[in-house]
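Dear support,

We are seeing what looks like truncated structure output for some complexes. This example has two components. We would appreciate it if you could run it in full and send us the complete token output so we can diff it against ours.
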Amino acid sequence: MTRLWNAPADFADEMIDGFVAANGRYVRRVTGGVVRSAGAPEGQVALVVGGGSGHYPAFGGLVGRGLAHGAAMGNLFASPSAQQVTSVATTAQRGGGVLLSYGNYAGDVLNFDAAQERLRAAGIPCESVPVTDDVSSAPADERHKRRGIAGDLTVFRTAGAAAEAGYPLAEVARVARLANERTRSFGVAFTGCTLPGADEPLFEVAEGRMAVGLGIHGEPGIGEEDVPTADELAETLVARLLDELPDGVAAAEDARAIPILNGLGSLKYEEMFVVYRRIAQLLEAAGVEIVDPHVGEYCTSFDMAGTSLTLFWLDDELAELWETPVDAPAYRRGSDVPAATTADAAEAAAEDEAIAPSDDASRETARIVVDAVAVIAATVDAHVDELGRMDAIAGDGDHGIGMQRGSHAAAEAARAAAEAGAGAATTLLRAADAWSDRAGGTSGALWGVILSSVADRIGDSGRPDAPAVARGTADAAAGVMAYGKAEPGDKTLVDALVPFAEELGRAVAAGASLADAWRTASGAATEAAAATADLLPRMGRARPHAEKSLGTPDPGAHSLALITAGVADVLAAATEGN
Amino acid sequence: MTRLWNAPADFADEMIDGFVAANGRYVRRVTGGVVRSAGAPEGQVALVVGGGSGHYPAFGGLVGRGLAHGAAMGNLFASPSAQQVTSVATTAQRGGGVLLSYGNYAGDVLNFDAAQERLRAAGIPCESVPVTDDVSSAPADERHKRRGIAGDLTVFRTAGAAAEAGYPLAEVARVARLANERTRSFGVAFTGCTLPGADEPLFEVAEGRMAVGLGIHGEPGIGEEDVPTADELAETLVARLLDELPDGVAAAEDARAIPILNGLGSLKYEEMFVVYRRIAQLLEAAGVEIVDPHVGEYCTSFDMAGTSLTLFWLDDELAELWETPVDAPAYRRGSDVPAATTADAAEAAAEDEAIAPSDDASRETARIVVDAVAVIAATVDAHVDELGRMDAIAGDGDHGIGMQRGSHAAAEAARAAAEAGAGAATTLLRAADAWSDRAGGTSGALWGVILSSVADRIGDSGRPDAPAVARGTADAAAGVMAYGKAEPGDKTLVDALVPFAEELGRAVAAGASLADAWRTASGAATEAAAATADLLPRMGRARPHAEKSLGTPDPGAHSLALITAGVADVLAAATEGN
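Here is the complete output from our reference environment:
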């Protein structure tokens, strides 16, 4: 929903004021919208675009060299008036005539047509090209009824490049019509936007459902279905667009196209990249030569959640125009980008390190290590949501996911090492490296330290005794404190690790078996983890936010306690087996 | 919330694949992240940035000439591992050493520091500059504890420009530290994001409330308050940042700064422009010279609703580095932007047209016109939500707002014209022009036609008789059908206007007074508007969407019925008064 405004009725005006204040190097305000602040050469055709506000960067963000000369900016989702269009065009024109281009909506057609009449009456040559890229808004044999969505960009961009190249008005209009003929878009939506001051969204789609072909102002679509996976959505979008090739494109496999994956507002870049990954695969599989892909926000609808795919089918002329320099507030291309060279620094593939020699006793222990790390991964799996929730309260919510990735990588690496004949130390060290590499984040680095500290003490020969494990655990506690610059009481996993190591050392020194000592130490860790609820958070967390972080055990300490309890079971089972 | 993924655990990997597929002209994938696909000159310092994924364009979108040489891309909201950072830096380095720069979070510090050790051990000179711009995350005397948010951009950009300019490693690091010293940010949030596959958002802020100083992963802020107006938010942000000038900036009025208003994800461009409008006013009032403002998305948190203001206080060196060419997937500046010239086509201010001559009788009628248009505006005000809702079902939801703007502009224009001595026709014509100019959209254009058609028939002399008004109304119906290319049954205001005009003509011909005839005609319009509920929508609306548009009267017809009823009251009152 829209959250920030002053008076809703002033929103569009104040928005344009702010846009111009932020982009004075590109645009200046005139009655009805904006024109280029740097002007344009005498005699150049002026491209004037426009439409309702609420679609940024359409339309003001597309005014600049190599793109539009002016934009008529209407109220929110409302066509600019004929007076506005006329005013902008009259100011923008440089004696070469005016091309009006805009999305094909009833209100825009009315007002731009009226403006065209007024401009012609005033002696200014004028042509108009409404954009009709949305395939879901009318059948192929009624293309003139289709709406314009993100395909605006291809028409404006090539027409703007043609104007910049000095084409006369009739030729600029021809390029715009050709680009429109060769542009097709298809979109989906999950929620509508809520306009400033409105109580309700423009439209709603049920949770878990997706509207197919729905327009950018909530105009009717062609259906509704369950939210698909990212790959399934890519398949839907590509299939529909490959199903309707424009005139002049005989077959997809002989053609080249620019894909534009446009976000409507709150469907974000990361999701679109996941979808685009599959789109690229599908287009390549269909034999389409992909040119200059675009993934981003080119025509939005406030914070509507939705996306559309546009395919712009190039011919030689359009391809050449596309690559010319362009410099607008929201659309830029450097003029002197060096061509990509073949990368000269080939990556050195990590060599498979040789497995260190080991004896039978250590290889037997390695199997216990494999079991222990597998139990760690299973323990994390069983508690992943709980850990994530705890971290969402105190931190950034990634603890559960990071622990899961790290522990699974560790389990796999341990299994592979043991199968390859590694002893206990090497097996555990491989697990440590895999954990820190795959998990990333703080916890990944710290768990790498913990496992490798223990590994260093147990060796690859003989059966490690309980004091060796206890020493390794003490090293782990010291290592984590040094590496993480944390102390007990800082509300990190140190709060559980230190009591665990101390209790393990004490019990082992008192003569307990490793399995028994470990069980006792794990109890101490569990108690300590629960006690972190009484501590204030530190380490990367500046201050308590509304006291929410009080009363919740730290996820790092909590996961350590859970894991030591799981490992205690493995050790007990291993002891029983002997 | 995040809606599109395949398996949540694969999200980050697939996201990077898609990002690279879309941006092959800029980046190529390596273990741990991306590096420039075009390489960089031998001996150049390599700037390697990074952090968790989920903040696009940070960090991969900032790899390119004039910016970073590589980005280590961690899992969602998780630091990249030391191995990832080392891998990216080793591939990106060109013999001139490596500068590591990243946001100051515990996990990132751990992993980047470990990578620095490994790089140095491998003989690659390496320096590190964590970014600490978020003023809400620690007090000024503990700046080293502060988090990095959108201020990443200023540090990366100037360091990247310094590397491009051939500065040696120590100097690139000096520039980065200087930029960090001179960068301050302050942010607010309204909602948290929901990670792929998660059931709940990372954090929640109560409806109508705003968290102040909250971190981009939901880290603790410093308070919570009611959602302010756009202007009030601007005041909060600017006041806090002017309160803490960096060393080297003695006073705001002697300084120049780049403002960066960053959107976190679903707070959109239009809202930010409204806020920026006031920020620019406040900075100017404080005497700050504003340089190259940025309003957009530079460091996001998926679709979190929030924004932050960064001020980057320039000195001569930083200002010069800032203006160099840059060309990355998500951050570009053309190298040959012509300086803005003084606009040569000065706008012709619309001259105050002279008021046409009129007589006393017509000026008296003009007062009735003023009353009628005022009642129209009041009628629209009273029904604005209802009209918006009806249009949200069938169209784009702008009908209520457009009608409100148009009718108020018309009422004001009518009042001004009558006060200036205009007769009835001129008064109504001014109202017509103001309506279509200010309302925009379809309805604005059509109401302009309606009012001007009636105006043309009533003249500026004498008291208009009922047949003149009836003829004007018939003209209006014909004009709207011609202009809007709509016919009765198309579910537009024509469906109410045509019966209204016909009934008015019939009643007047039968000898009724204008007031009585108008009342009868208005009843016919009301009946016809209600009947539009049984019609299918047409005119710019392709097909019914889930049948939602059935059963709802068309807002255009409905508002015409309401307005004619309001005017009937004015006419009745005027008759009584005589």
